[in-house]
Structures are given as C-alpha cells and as structure tokens.
Write a structure and sequence with these properties.
The chain has about 550 residues and is of the alpha/beta class. Helices cover about 30% and strands about 15% of the residues. Among the domains are: about 35 residues, no CATH class; about 150 residues, Aspartate Aminotransferase, domain 1, CATH 3.90.1150; about 80 residues, Alpha-Beta Complex (Ornithine Decarboxylase, Chain A, domain 4). The longest helix has 17 residues. About 5% of the residues have low confidence.
C-alpha cells in the first residue's frame, strides 16, 4: 500500500512538472485569438468586441447587498427578467446560466410526471433525452422529413403530431425543436393548435432562435405562435457569453393561465441551475438583449443578403434557400444559417492545396466503396444516406471534406458538418471581411468541383425508425455488457450514439440496433464525422443490455 501511495505521488509530481505555462488553456486561447481563423460558429459575439462589457474580473461578484439573488429574485434581477419578458412577449422569463440544457431539463421534468409519456421530435438535442432519462419517461417520436438533394432534415408537420397524439393517448406534453441546427422552422402555430386541442402543453426548443424577434428577415418566434414554454440560447446567435440562455413561459389558455405547470418548472429551474450563478453571465444576457434592442440590423441584413445571393449562383455546391419553404415540412427558414450541400459533387482539382494535406480525389481516409467497414453489401460510402457515387468513378465530396478544406486552406471554422453538408452560423456581429472571405472561399472551392451522379432513391438516416425494446432509463440503469460495435446489430443499446454537434441520436438506449443503423454509424466513422456517445471513445465497443436469452 505504501509503495502504491509513493507511485501515485510520483505520478502527480510528473504531471505537475509536465504542465508548462505555454500549455495552459488560457494561453492557448490567447494564441488562438490572435490567429486569422474566422468563426462561423457560436458564440454569437464572434470574439469581435466587448459590446460595452467590462473586464469580467472587475465585475465578478456573489450575492452581495444591492445585487439580488437569482434563486430568490426581489430586486435588480427580478426587474431585469421582467423587462426581458416584455421584450420577448412572455409572461415570465428566466435567466439561465447553465445553458439551454438546464431549461430543457426543467421544462421536461416540470411538465411530465415521473414515468409519464412525452412526444418529442426525433431530431431533438441530447439534453431532451437526458430529461427523458432523469424523469424515467416513456418517449414517442415524431420524425422530421428530409430535404431531397441536400441531405438535411426538414420540418415537423401538425398532421404528424396529431397522428402521434391519437396513437399515444397517454401523452402528457409535446416537445419540438424549431429552428433546427440548420435553420429549418416547423409550423409551430399549427402544431400548437393540435397540441392545445388535446389539452397539452407545447415546449419548443428554440435554442437557435433567440434572435428571431429582431428584424423582419427572421422567422416569427415560437412565443408568438402559441408555444407554452420556449427555451432560447442567447449565446448561440446573439452577442452573449457561452452558456447563457433564456426560458420563457406564456399563458395561452383561453381562460387564462398556462397549459404547462409553471410552478413545477420554477422548482426544477432552481434545482438544475448552479447555486452560485455568475453575475458576469447574467449581465451578459441582459446586455446582449439591450444591444440587440438598440442595434441597427440593416447593415447586417444587406451583407447577409449579398452573400446569399452570391452563393445561390454556385454550380455544384447547393445553398439551402428560401425556395425550400413549403416543402419537406419546412414552414420557414432562418436565412442567417448558411447551409451548403455537397451531394452529387466530387473534388476534381486540389492544385495548391497540397501543403494543407488536401489532395484531389482523396477524402482523408474515407471509404471508397471497397466493401470495407460501413460500405454495407458492396455499396459505396454514403449510399445509406443517399450521398454515394452513382455510375461515375469519381469519389463523392463530403461535408467533412468541405469543412476540412475551409478550415485548413481558408482559415474559416464552421459550426458543424454532416455527411453531405456544412453549416455556418452568421450573426449581427459578423463583419464584411468575414462574410466576404466565406463567399470567396466557397466560390473557389465550387470551381474545383465536378458534378457526379448519386443514388437519389437511397434511404437516409432521417427516414430510419428504430424499434424500442424498453425505456431509456430502464436500459441505462439495467445490466449492461460490452459488445464489439461492428457486431452489435441485433443488440439492445445501453448507450446513445450520435454525431455531435448537434447531438441527435442515431440510436438511443433501449432501442434495437438494426443492421441499417449500424451501417450508418460505421459509414459516419469512415467519413471522420464526430460520432460520440459510447463510453469507449475509440468506438470499438458499445454497452448493450444483457438479455435472458
């Protein structure tokens, strides 16, 4: 035992000596901030300035006299949140310093009784699934449609919600994500009418839509369309610090009052929020709302319009545009999201990019249809998701490739990439130079691409339906064992498997892993997409539920 303690102390000393000043996170951040890497990702302030905000160390305080208490607001914080509620048209607004995730957990646990049933859109963020687990809920899913030719998800229709509510009469609440990560907005007014007709509350994860109330170029907020509880991340699309968010409650009952249990939501908010809420973060929330209220958005609108007009003329890459409204369940589209699809394209010319590690026809280790992992029954890569090559011999150009080229060659960091597309977040804080750089880069990349045929009839991950064997909680709390991922078809998953961002499960705990789902997972791993979830980060093994047989 004494030898073990000495060994541990020696290891600790070695680790301490191994951390050099230049390796400290703060210094790495400073160095990164001095590079020319331009952020087309959250947070929405884009590292461009303080927006009148002071040095955080000079204003970082605790609950001292005159500054109220977020967990018992009576003074300045109470007035601030009431002001924010007035700005957004809510009956009550909460400042969240643990991100939208804390608001989602509070809304779910405060609305659906333990062990009850909730109907959620399958493309929800992983925080929704965490709420389902924590409250041991039964989950039913309504699935988004797919946008043909783009490889992105469409919207959720009121008809689909109505059908699921009729099938599962024990449903206690409905939760929809709108807009999606890619800016797709569903018909929230129509969905709210269906949900309220059943006497149920509608929760909308509007994390990517905190900016909607500012400017006619944006879609209407769910708060104005009948949603009862709305969660928004101000840090995603507004000039606020990371992990800042809002939860709004709206009284929509004809006789007054809320379809949701506002008192229980309030109780859970105080449970899941830190007991030491940062005044810096709370001030950042308030300041970002104030700045947006007093900002002239016309220059940004013009810059964004110019960029979108330019990108709409690309010959191979395809911009998700407003022409998608009215198709694939899409009610509206957030034009601040720049979504470019790579489907049906191939990289023909990488001249001058060799020093960045980019070579023509080489997709950084992506499977070429050689019947290796993820290729399925002799199918080429991407055929599961509809992005595989057709009769042409040229390899497909993927979202991961486009993301990599934009980062390495053009020093532009995207928010995320999918198998067949990339998503860039633009905000009011983007400048002319940044938007012009993105336009120049995409135009040059597009000029190096060639169109290739691809299987338009192939099924996609968005149309996949997984059979449920047990609840998420029963699976995660049950007896689990390790199985090799490549041999996991036919097992009941004990873990989530998703691409993060955005964290939408391909397989959730308690679901049977189909051969088709496994093919998609292996294909995404081949394409170097960020497949996450399992405890084994190497993704060699997956925890599965032990069965009696």
């Amino acid at each position: 035992m004494e030898m073990k303690k000495k060994t541990q102390k020696k290891t600790q000393r070695e680790m301490q000596r191994g951390m050099q000043r230049e390796d400290l996170l703060v210094n790495r951040l400073v160095r990164y901030g001095k590079t020319n890497m331009y952020p087309f990702h959250m947070p929405g302030h884009k590292r461009t300035g303080s927006m009148g905000f002071p040095d955080p160390f000079t204003v970082d305080i605790t609950e001292i006299d005159g500054f109220d208490n977020l967990h018992h607001p009576e003074g300045i914080l109470k007035r601030s949140m009431e002001w924010a509620a007035g700005v957004y048209g809510a009956d009550r607004t909460y400042y969240l310093v643990n991100g939208s995730s804390s608001g989602i957990l509070s809304a779910i646990c405060g609305t659906v009784p333990r062990g009850g049933r909730i109907l959620v859109s399958r493309n929800c963020h992983k925080a929704v699934y965490h709420g389902i687990f924590l409250n041991q809920l039964k989950a039913s899913y309504v699935y988004p449609q797919e946008v043909p030719g783009l490889g992105i998800q469409g919207g959720i229709t009121p008809q689909d919600v109505d059908q699921m509510l009729r099938r599962y009469m024990d449903t206690k609440a409905v939760l929809i994500v709108s807009p999606t990560y890619d800016g797709v907005v569903s018909d929230i007014r129509g969905i709210a009418q269906v949900v309220h007709r059943a006497g149920l509350p509608l929760i909308v994860d509007e994390a990517h839509g905190a900016h909607f109330r500012y400017g006619e170029m944006f879609p209407c907020s769910a708060l104005d369309l009948g949603a009862d509880v709305v969660i928004q991340s101000v840090h995603k699309t507004m000039p606020s610090l990371t992990q800042t968010a809002l939860l709004h409650i709206k009284n929509n009952r004809p006789e007054g009052g809320c379809y949701a249990n506002a008192q229980k939501i309030d109780r859970y908010i105080h449970m899941v929020q830190t007991t030491s809420p940062s005044y810096v973060l709370m001030a950042s929330i308030e300041n970002s709302i104030y700045q947006m209220e007093h900002m002239d958005l016309e220059p940004y609108s013009q810059r964004l319009g110019t960029l979108r007009q330019r990108l709409s003329g690309l010959k191979c890459l395809r911009l998700a545009g407003l022409d998608l409204k009215g198709t694939s369940g899409i009610f509206d589209l957030d034009c601040s999201k720049i979504v470019l699809s790579t489907r049906g394209t191939s990289l023909a010319d990488a001249t001058g990019w060799e020093k960045s590690g980019i070579k023509s026809g080489i997709n950084s280790g992506i499977n070429r249809g050689d019947n290796g992992p993820g290729s399925g029954q002799g199918r080429g890569p991407g055929s599961v998701s509809g992005a595989g090559p057709g009769s042409d011999s040229l390899p497909c150009f993927t979202g991961a490739m486009l993301d990599d080229i934009l980062r390495r060659v053009y020093r532009l960091e995207m928010e995320m990439c999918g198998a067949d597309y990339v998503t860039a977040i633009s905000t009011v804080m983007d400048n002319d130079q940044g938007l012009s750089r993105l336009g120049d880069a995409l135009c040059e990349i597009d000029s190096r691409l060639k169109p290739v045929s691809w299987d338009t009839t192939a099924s996609s991950v968005y149309s996949m339906r997984s059979d449920t064997a047990m609840t998420i909680a029963d699976a995660m709390d049950g007896e689990l064992h390790d199985v090799k991922l490549k041999d996991s078809a036919g097992c009941i998953s004990g873990e989530f498997i998703y691409i993060y961002p955005p964290g939408i499960p391909i397989v959730a705990p308690g679901e049977w892993i189909s051969r088709r789902a496994l093919d998609i997972i292996l294909e995404y791993m081949d394409k170097k997409l960020p497949v996450q979830g399992p405890e084994d980060q190497e993704l060699t093994y997956l925890k599965a539920v032990k069965t009696t047989d």
